[in-house]
Amino acid sequence: MIETLIDKYYPHHRKVRSILLRHSRMVRDKSLLIAQKHTELKADIHLLNDGAMVHDIGIVLTHA
């Protein structure tokens, strides 16, 4: 589902796709590392993963 959403706004032929994916993966990895180090937070790993991958998906619709 996440891949479908990313594909909708960032088709494979768009250069910005690689920028979004690189950034989102960095955010994902950092959030998962924090969750792993702080198990007392009882973080939802799937939510962290999915949320990180789409947290900036709307940036394509702005003049950022």
Plain-language structure description:
The chain is built from three helices and no strands. By secondary structure, it is mainly alpha-helical. The longest helix is centred in the middle third of the chain and has 22 residues, at 16-37.
Helical segment count: 3
How would you sum up the global shape?
Answer: elongated
Largest sheet: none
Q: What is the mean predicted local confidence, pLDDT?
A: 95
Work out the strand percent: under 5%
Distance between the termini: 26 Å
What fraction, in percent, of the residue positions are helical? 55-70%
Instruction: Name the poorly predicted regions.
Output: none
**N-to-C order of helices and strands:** HHH
The tally of strands reads: 0
Q: What structural category arises from helix and sheet content?
A: mainly alpha
Short overview:
62% of the residues lie in helices and 0% in strands.
Question: Which helices and strands, and how do they pair?
Answer:
Elements lengths: L1 H8 L6 H22 L7 H10 L10
Q: Which features would summarize this protein structure in a list?
A:
0% strand, 3 helices, single chain, mainly alpha, 64 residues
